[in-house]
Fold these 2 entries.
Entry 1:
Amino acid sequence: MSLVPYRKNTWLSDPFRELENLQREMNRLFDFSFANNPFGETTLLGSQWSPSIDIHESKDNLLVKADLPGLTKDEIEISVQDNNLIIKGEKKKENEVQEENYYKTERFYGSFYRTIQLPSEVDENKVNAQYKDGVLSLTLPKKENAKPKQIRVNIK
Amino acid sequence: MFDKLKLNSKNDNAVVVLPNTNIYDQDKSIVLSLEMAGVDKESLDVNLEGNILRIKATKKKEDIPREYQALYQERQVVEYKRSFELNAEVDREKIEAEYKDGVLKVFLCKAEKAQPKKIAIKV
């Protein structure tokens, strides 16, 4: 048996791996430039910033958390419409600062809007909202008819 | 080498994020304002090492009751980290910080000599 020289990662040994690498790199490039632009503004796909959210569910409630740094309570507007939760508002610039005094602006300002389809019907009159340290927490109680029901089946 | 790796993997489930920052002049200071939502105030750490100002904070652990189940998650456990190099303009002794509504503001006081001096012109 003859010995074959070991070549690491050459396209000869595994041409598909190179293709996969290329694809991965391209994906990374696109992810970076379109979706995860850290500066929030002027991307090709949508020029808006929208808050990141988490949704948790229990038997009786939905719990929605959103990261909204740098806002005040009055700048956030929450509504429930046709089983969609709408979080919107406007982020205002620090008004005491004049434009020419900025060295760097990376933070996003302007209006934002986010709609979240809720997984079950909620009672919009009983929504409880809290805003603390830039995090918005919403507790949305489910409607009676949306709660899971246990039906006992009698076996004869 | 392995020691180094160990050090780095201490918090391996935390995603490290560079907080978006604005820097501006305000009166006698230069202000850094960093967006860091939901930070645990205890973990906030601003320290100066030579010319490097390091800012570090971890996000507060969410206290979600047991009966809840995650349906959808975009917010990750995050560690915020960013450092800035200061020039001679900044008075090292007078650095203050405040955290409010998810924004950390660091006030860097300008050193005496960096403040514009009014020169009276004699006619």
Entry 2:
Amino acid sequence: MNFKEEYKSAMEKISPDENVSQKIEQAVLNEISGKTAAKKKKPFYVCAAFSGAACAAAAAIILVNVLHVRTPNNLSAETPSASGTSNLTAGFEISEDKAETDIISEEFEPTDFQAANVNGSFKEQDEGVFENDADEPKDSLSSANTAEYELIFTPEGDVLLVGQNETKKYSPEGVVSHYTDNADIAVSSVKCSDSTVAGVAVKENFLYIFEEDLHTAAVYKLKN
Amino acid sequence: MKLSLKTSESFNEVMKLYLPTVYRIAFTRLKNAADAEDAAQDVFLWYFKADKTFESEEHRKAFLIRCAINRANSYASSAHARHTAKGELLENMTEISCDNASETVLKTETQREVLDAVMKLAPKYRTVIHLFYFEDMTIAQIAEVTDSKESAVKSRLMRAREKLKSTLGGYEFD
């Protein structure tokens, strides 16, 4: 038997039927024409530090995720600010009203994130602060608004990290399924309609975009 | 002559021509019809927004294939997240999806056997096998669309064949 013939015959039968074609075509045309589309695509912003009570909801959600993979004892030992995350050293800032409402909503849009201090340090909170959902982090994080990053996925699959003064382009390298160096993760929680980006890290020439488990990351390499 | 999407080409025509190609590449990576549809939709949305000019149809096809691979890879991560969020193992989900697809789509046991064997390969091997045996792409072309070195593509193809031979047995690989 010939593998190529059999494989071709098998794959020929895996094809979108007419309904699927029409559905995709209509969804694309709707999106193009600006109507309500089946899927929303918006770039999201990678900012620097949380500020005040605004970070409470985001940090709580993030660290709930983190607690799934880390014990409370480990939390105190990890200091993101001391890691090699280049100039992307923290997470997202969220306006107060969004922090309390939209972040847990399906309608939450990543563009609601605002700029924050890119180079500000991310100081660890007291151990166990986030063990109880009712607890809120203390207002000890940097809140200076100095820079804003935008993460854009290009049609070619590359990622643009757009800052105020420079734009870095990264190309896909693969997927890391067991990333263990959590100290390097600039935590954030951005819900997109088609994917979940729970954290971003830049380490040397590599950009890591994490899933909710903070262990699985799409890896991108800096393009010269 | 340079072909521009919005001037000389109909978007619908391009979609009709290349949707099956994009869909199959996404399916090969994602092993799930619904995810493949979503990925295909994203690819054509990108394609339209990019409004690129292509030297030839080969370039257009290569661009779409590259987009499909990249989008499917990205989507695989989010699919993984959704499945694990539901407390299900990705491996189990994809295994079920694959079996269902095989049972409903494929008519012959032989074809099902071949498809199952391919779907059980690692993603990087599946993609190379599909592009080489179904899309009839050369090593150089595959290297270009996967952003890999030709030596890496050759290596993946060789290892994928070895794995398939051990699984299938009795098949000839050109």
